[in-house]
Amino acid sequence: MNTRKHAGTLELRGERLCLDFTNTVGWHASDHPQEWLLSYADLLAWSRHAGIVTASQNEQLLQEARSRPALAEEVLRRAITLREACYRIFSCVVQDCSPKVEDLSILQNAYAQAMVHAQVVPIGERFTFNWPGDEQALDFPLWPIAHSATELLLSEELHRVKACPGDGCGWLFVDKSRNQSRRWCNGQDCGNRVRVRQHYQRQRTSRKS
Predict the structure, then answer these.
(1) What is the DSSP letter of 53?
(2) Whole-number average pLDDT of the chain
(3) How many Å apart are CA 165 and CA 86, to the nearest integer?
(4) Between the CA of residue 143 and those of 32, 53, 149, 196, what are the distances in Å?
(5) Is 50 exceeded by the pLDDT of residue 199?
(6) 111-140 b/e (C-beta count within 10 Å ≥ 16 → b)
(7) Hey, what domains does the chain have and what are their CATH numbers?
(8) What confidence score (pLDDT) does residue 197 get?
């Protein structure tokens, strides 16, 4: 069994698709971030994991990417550009500062492209946007991501966006807890590391005193 961590196994802790996408970089707030989207295949693996594409769409898009490698590389570049713009925008939201016009423009352009392909579909008693799978459109995975980011910016949940304070982590998430008490991307990961370090520091301080 292959348990190696890769783009298709990353934790989805953001509570919104767009934030899960910004979290495809490990230690995003550090001087040594870990990139998980190293190829178009990685982008598809994550998209499959996040529920954007089906297994059959994944295979068909992979075949299309193999026949058009230059375009696949361009889509990957656009994906990373969109991801980093979203990361900076929502980081500004967390820090209560104004996002750069350039970043908002990147998102706006991606959203405009996405809405060209969107369809309005009924869900129960309401309606929503949906993107029919286009196995020849290599940028198909970017459409729902751009919509998710724009929707979050305009939603009442925007004030619930937080950044994990773990050293260098910087993962973003929507705090859906009732009293807005969530602090970590993962309490068993970043939370435990900080608690262990604080415990060690307290022990050192007590030994010195």
Answers:
(1) S
(2) 91
(3) 18
(4) 29, 11, 10, 41
(5) no
(6) beebeebbeeeeeeeeeeeebeeebeebbb
(7) 7-208 (1.10.3300.10)
(8) 57
